[in-house]
Design goal:
The protein is mainly alpha-helical. Helices cover 45% and strands 9% of the residues. The chain contains five helices and two strands; from the N terminus they run αβαβααα. β1 (41-46), α2 (48-59) and β2 form a beta-alpha-beta unit. α1 (26-35) crosses α2. The two termini are 23 Å apart.
């Protein structure tokens, strides 16, 4: 995902990708963030990573200079989104996840990007990677707080 963005920002920054997929618990994810971040960092995070970045910043404010949160809400998920996810979970227990539907992509993407296959491919791959990560654990991810 970040490969398209980082070249546009120039050479004045050191970019560190945080491989959250290597961790299995929230605590491990916080450890991975710490291991891959500067002692005082500007964190840019997307989706689930943004929720984790908020937690990390609250736990370690001395290590975070700023937060940029993308596809995230500090208020948590809307009631409609919670209901949608509750409907999806039982289906995922009975069949393999095959990717995001076009309808779901239309909810996530700005209309100017709906025809950009490279963006769609990145989002689809992220969703499949997350599904694969969850299936390795043989249970849905457990996150406390608002979901």
């Amino acid at each position: 995902m970040w490969s398209r963005l980082t070249p546009l920002l120039g050479n004045g920054f050191a970019f560190n990708y945080v491989p959250l997929h290597q961790a299995q618990t929230r605590q491990q994810m916080h450890e991975v963030i710490a291991a891959h971040s500067a002692p005082s960092a500007h964190l840019v995070a997307f989706s689930l990573g943004a929720y984790l970045a908020i937690e990390y910043a609250l736990l370690h404010p001395e290590r975070v200079q700023s937060l940029v949160l993308i596809a995230n809400s500090a208020r948590g998920l809307s009631e409609n989104e919670k209901q949608t996810r509750r409907r999806i979970i039982p289906m995922l227990k009975n069949s393999a996840y095959t990717g995001m539907t076009r309808m779901r992509l239309r909810e996530l993407l700005h209309e100017s990007h709906l025809g950009d296959q490279s963006i769609i491919d990145i989002i689809q791959q992220m969703a499949l990677d997350l599904a694969r990560m969850c299936s390795w654990r043989n249970s849905p991810p457990r996150w406390s707080g608002r979901t």
